[in-house]
Amino acid sequence: MPRPPRLWFPGAWYHIMARGNNKEAIFFADRDYRKYLQLLSETVQRYECPLHAYVLMTNHVHLMIETGSRHPIWKPVHLLHTAYTSYVNHAYGRVGHVFQGRYRSILVERDVYALELGRYIHLNPVRAHLVTEPSEYPWSSYHAYVGLEREGHGLVTTHQLLGMLSPQPSLQRERYRQFTLEGLAAPRDLMREVTDSQFLASPAFVEQAWGQAQGQARCLTPRAD
Known about the structure:
Largest sheet: 5 strands, mixed
Order of helices and strands: EHEEHEHHHHHEH
Number of helices: 8
CATH architecture: 2-Layer Sandwich
Number of strands: 5
Radius of gyration: 18 Å
Structural class: alpha+beta
Distance between the termini: 35 Å
CATH topology: Alpha-Beta Plaits
CATH class: Alpha Beta
CATH superfamily: Transposase IS200-like
Strand content: 5-15%
């Protein structure tokens, strides 16, 4: 069965998920998390693709990333994971794949769905029983949202999700903290809401996204003059 095409248009938001090969670890020491964040920062700058949230778990990663005006989502993700694979294989004397097959990408509606996804990403370490609350985990963007200095600080763009919770900057970080912790009391399985394995969005957004993606594809197709 052929793989579905990855839809793309400028300004599209995606939930990117990638696991270790055979579900094995992709991070073995603190230096590996730091290297991934370094490569992620370089990728975001090179492809002008804002990063809205991330968490690095032992054997998988979650990213919420927005494409810029020129490059489809596969380009930055491919560069990032190819570079990280080269680093791991060199650092640990390995060969072969680090990540398992094709990463998963889900197109996300940048409204309540994106806000809910941010909470889902930041609660991953808690639900995996690695920490008791998200601020204790060093390898996520949660710290940027609640005003704590940690690894990767300055890497993420926070104003869009924070602005959904309050128009007043002085209230946003505390509201985000409260919103995230509320998710522990009322867990929501976002993956059950994915539409056609490609969307985390309302039906209206799905229809609109298909139209935008098809229009973008026509713009990129060379004309036969």
